Amino acid sequence: MKDSGIYGIRNRTTGHVYIGSSADLERRWKQHRSLLNRGVHPTPRLQAAWLAHGEDLFLFVVLELCAAAELRDREQWWLDSVRPHVPDVGYNEMSSTRADWSNAEYRRLMSAANKRRANTPEGRAQIKAARAKRTDYSMMSRVRSSRKPGNQFRLWTDGERASLGEIFGRIPLKEIALIFGRSIHGIQVEAHRLGLKSKGTAAFSERMRQVSLDREAKKRDERE
Fold this sequence. Notes:
Structural class: mainly alpha
Distance between the termini: 94 Å
Strand content: 5-15%
Shape: rod-shaped
CATH superfamily of the largest domain: GIY-YIG endonuclease
Low-confidence stretches: 135-152
Number of helices: 9
Largest sheet: 3 strands, antiparallel
Helix content: 55-70%
């Protein structure tokens, strides 16, 4: 069974302590050790002390066991009583368990922590993955938008033409039409304009060539 409560990370040499809370104390201690050993912990003073003194000089202590619903209030009580945010006492950056984005100092600390994480290989990988998700979502949004009524006859963009060139002839026309939110005929016309070829389009290409010839002949007759 998971233990829920308030914990401290105490420096055996100096007596300084970091206080926190968790619904799973054992898992939280493993997370702290992992971040500290990789040098990416969001609490600068604790990270500096860990690097200076070494893991063996730090002790994880359970200060109080309590229900998960009481964690925030009990942690605040310990922060108020011990005052680990004071440099001579502990390692906590803030004196409150509640995020206060109106506080300039809180914003500065969070910004600094995020920058430190972003400069690590893991941080860069997380940022790259998040950007990829946003790109995928943006692409799906454009596809959904393109299926709305009235978009069947919109002009083709350069990006759409490039995408059409990559998939035309590789997947069925019906699927291509769904992707771009256009009619099959509209896909065929644009593919012909781009000179794209695929199996089964020879007859269509010939028909389009004949249409072009007929149009040119009609223009010549009108001029004469």
